[in-house]
Design a protein that fits this description.
Elements lengths: L1 E11 L11 E5 L3 E7 L2 E6 L7 E12 L3 E9 L10 E5 L2 E8 L7 E2 L6 E2 L1 E7 L4 E11 L8 E12 L1
Parallel strand pairs: 1-4, 9-10
Antiparallel strand pairs: 1-13, 2-3, 3-5, 5-12, 6-11, 6-13, 7-8, 8-12
Length: about 160
């Protein structure tokens, strides 16, 4: 099992910023080495008075090699600092900004741990003599008319890979 932090960031009436954590490594079974990397998800600078939702994407990539065997896995995402999947929240000091992460471009299925109303992304691949990788898009959304004070908002999501 492996984990990976994904920074989720937004700035309201200010400059957007990102943090890119270093790659993590894991071992799937005893025969292959796997790396999990994630790109930061940034909503950029948003207008808190906008009447439409703000969308952004990120990617989590699983790369394994170099043994010839099938590796199946599930990618789970944590609740972040909010402690709930229903509405995740970013913080800027004592202020919060609601957002969520989804498994699909339509943003209808919340990406979580597979419990309750959440789902996980399941995949797998045969690892050949070279390295093989799979990338999965994370779809983020700040709902329309989200109210927030100006600031740089952030949350840290942990991606867990279950082999």
């Amino acid at each position: 099992m492996n984990w990976r932090s994904l920074q989720v960031c937004a700035a309201v009436a200010g400059a957007a910023w990102l943090l890119s954590p270093p790659p993590a490594s894991a071992v799937c079974g005893v025969l292959c080495n796997c790396d999990v990397t994630a790109t930061p998800l940034s909503f950029g600078t948003i207008d808190p008075l906008a009447s439409s939702a703000v969308n952004a994407n990120a990617t989590v990539t699983i790369a394994c090699g170099p043994v010839g065997l099938f590796v199946g896995y599930d990618v789970q995402l944590s609740t972040g600092g909010s402690g709930a999947f229903g509405v995740r929240s970013m913080t800027s000091g004592a202020n919060t900004l609601a957002y969520n992460l989804y498994t699909d471009a339509a943003r209808t299925t919340v990406w979580g741990d597979g419990g309750g109303v959440t789902d996980v992304v399941s995949s797998g691949f045969t690892i050949a003599l070279g390295s093989t990788s799979r990338s999965h898009t994370i779809y983020g959304r700040i709902p329309s008319l989200a109210t927030a004070r100006p600031g740089a908002y952030a949350d840290t999501i942990t991606a867990t890979i279950v082999w």
